[in-house]
Write a structure and sequence with these properties.
Two copies of one chain form a homodimer. The first copy, chain A, is α/β, with parallel strands linked by helices. The first copy, chain A, contains 14 helices and twelve strands. A seven-stranded mixed sheet of chain A has the order 2-8-7-6-5-3-4, sandwiched between helices. The N and C termini of chain A lie far apart (44 Å). Chains A and B meet through helix 2, helix 3, helix 5, helix 6 and helix 10 of A and helix 2, helix 3, helix 5, helix 6 and helix 10 of B.
């Protein structure tokens, strides 16, 4: 470092995913898009490789007035946005306690906020071993450490025993743990925690000797399955003890299929009004002292979509169509993989499927030779089924299964 | 604190400015907008109290395609945006060294970025005693301390002697200092550093025993005066020694008069390519690990505006009109104040004028009784001339001068 300060971070010279995606684009330019499988992109593309946008959303964007763009939004978001987020996040579930909402720049901002406000420098934040790589960067950026528990046991079930062991280990060192669970349609595996998994988690947290900020990253909830079904775990959160504060990380960018608008929210749900007010106070303070207010246009769009039942229905219907396309790709990918003697890490739904392997970098390099571009993780390879057609899912799964033999 | 962690921050229960602005809005609702002077708003309003938007910008927004909103922008911004920022920031000045640009959520994001990447936890960041209150919050949010030098001496000139004293004091403790200077059209005073001020700063930094990240917050540059004149200090920065890295905080939200779009950038300018590459690496890393990428639509608008000379001219002309309106308000405010035997902190241009006084809170309360709403700072009262008509500038200046007698 010359002028910059490393500050405990390990900053790579180059973003590997960015470089990989650059090579994929070059290959497409040279050989045509049919010849290349670019499964690196974390956005939903249609079968022709075009970014999916929703007519209901686009029409609403086009109806905005100049002031909708120009005016500062309040730090926590416009009142209509905060209402909309509650409808979008909770669906038909009505929390009995106190809910507070604060706008964040995408889902990423909500993770920054929970870490900055509910843990201390040097703390360990706990999450599943399969996790979005950026969890670690965000911890590191904030001087926190990331500890992990094994997400799955040897049978491929949720590993409650390891969660409990890691919780007890950390509880001996910290009076409070930020526990981050990304579900449903977990990135990168596509796993959705079952109601039984949730019972186990609640049991473990309720009897632990420390407090928890339980951060549930629901970025992919709207692509995980039917709206009511994927929210069935929410009422269970009301069984959590006074030592646990549930906090959601919500990504409106994904709900709207408008990633570039950077619209998300951090949302708490608690029986204790004072805890809710404290949440409001700290997350708004840190927002103001980090990025200030958020993109107003996106908030107005959310407000409009969820204020008009007909418009909301139109958006929900559109999204259901794309979601079914995505679910079909996922199930197809998994079936082809299985039919060819391989398997993926437990998968239910979402943008990604992951295949565990001993040498992900080598597997990635072999795939690249066949013009198949996937992101290598520490313990496996991640395939973005969101960004490739069903036909390419078949080819990709076959190629991976063959290489793993 | 119940679940939240104070983390060295002093988090107020309520945002005072927000509460004040709420009371101003209530007064307007009750008594009509002509009867109330709401000089709390940090955005440019026309003489009727309506938010100023630029036709060139609005037309460009309306020309965007769905993908312009929907697609993720690269972390550092789209190539066209990065080009546009250089044109917008530097105008006719062509830096001879290496420039790197990274998108940030508004000007606030650029401040977060420089502090997170160019200072360490526990460090002192140095700025002028008159400063945007959020500087302190951002330091505090990042575990840094804010040290200040007296911006002005007793004659109302730039206080180079105190800057030098404070630099030497900190240089004894730190090997590097982030020095933040907000100019031209400084918030909250409206002061623009002169070329002589800059000579003094450059002399002090070049002979100091430590390194500097010299952060120049130019958020209000496009409202400070004629484009070339307000950039005359820029070539001087090339006289800085190897121990100083100049970094700009740029606010496209203000250039576009589209605050709600949250579009800004952090920009470095250095003779050393390695230092430039290091800048790119660390600011992109911290962006990804804090808010990820930024609002793409705003980037596309910037890209289009600055790629088309005619469109840029149209925007520049529009802005000049509003800027002249603003400059006229400022000069009028200052004159009325002086004519009534009072004076403001040295003022040149910009959104705000500040009047020093012994008990700002009491002065603010007295003004509020007359339905004049201004923000009380530690050492004075801040009047947003950006948000009130020339007529109200006269009334406000008269009222303040009278109360100060």
């Amino acid at each position: 470092m010359i002028f910059a300060k490393e500050n405990g971070r390990t900053i790579p010279k180059e973003d590997k995913v960015f470089a990989l995606s650059g090579r994929a684009k070059e290959a497409i330019a040279a050989k045509g898009k049919d010849a290349v499988i670019n499964a690196t992109i974390g956005a939903l593309l249609d079968d022709e490789g075009e970014l999916v946008t929703m007519t209901s959303v686009v029409d609403t964007i086009m109806s905005l007035t100049p002031t909708d763009y120009a005016e500062y939004a309040p730090i926590a978001g416009t009142p209509a946005f905060k209402e909309a987020v509650q409808k979008a996040l909770f669906g038909n579930f009505k929390p009995s306690g106190h809910v507070r909402v604060c706008a964040t720049p995408g889902g990423t901002g909500s993770i920054t906020s929970v870490i900055a406000n509910y843990s201390e420098v040097g703390d360990f934040v706990l999450t599943h071993d399969w996790c979005w790589a950026n969890y670690k960067n965000i911890c590191s950026q904030n001087g926190r450490n990331l500890a992990t528990f094994s997400f799955f046991d040897d049978e491929g079930n949720f590993n409650a025993a390891d969660l409990e062991a890691k919780v007890n280990e950390l509880a001996a060192k910290q009076d409070q743990i930020v526990l981050m669970l990304n579900t449903p349609a977990h990135n990168p595996t596509g796993y959705s925690m079952t109601l039984e998994d949730w019972d186990a988690v609640i049991g473990i947290l309720n009897k632990a000797s420390c407090r928890f900020a339980l951060f549930i990253d629901v970025a992919y909830i709207d692509y995980a399955g039917e709206d009511d079904e994927v929210r069935e775990f929410m009422p269970k959160l009301e069984e959590l003890g006074d030592n646990v504060l549930p906090i959601f990380g919500y990504s409106a960018s994904k709900t709207l299929a408008a990633y570039g608008m950077r619209c998300g929210a951090i949302v708490c749900m608690t029986k204790d009004e004072e805890t809710a007010e404290e949440f409001k106070k700290v997350v708004e303070y840190s927002a103001r002292a980090t990025w200030s207010n958020c993109n107003r246009a996106a908030q107005v769009v959310m407000g409009k979509l969820y204020a008009e039942p007909e418009l909301q229905k139109k958006a929900d219907d559109e999204r259901r169509g794309y979601r079914n396309m995505l679910l079909d790709r996922g199930k197809t990918f998994e079936k082809v993989l299985n039919d060819n003697g391989a398997k993926c890490v437990p998968f239910d739904a979402g943008f990604f499927v992951t295949i565990a392997c001993d040498d992900p970098a080598a597997l990635g390099a072999e795939l690249e030779k066949q013009d198949i571009y996937c992101v290598s993780l520490a313990k496996g390879i991640r395939v973005s089924i969101a960004s490739i057609s069903k036909e390419k899912c078949v080819k990709c799964a076959e190629a991976i299964a063959k290489l793993l033999k």
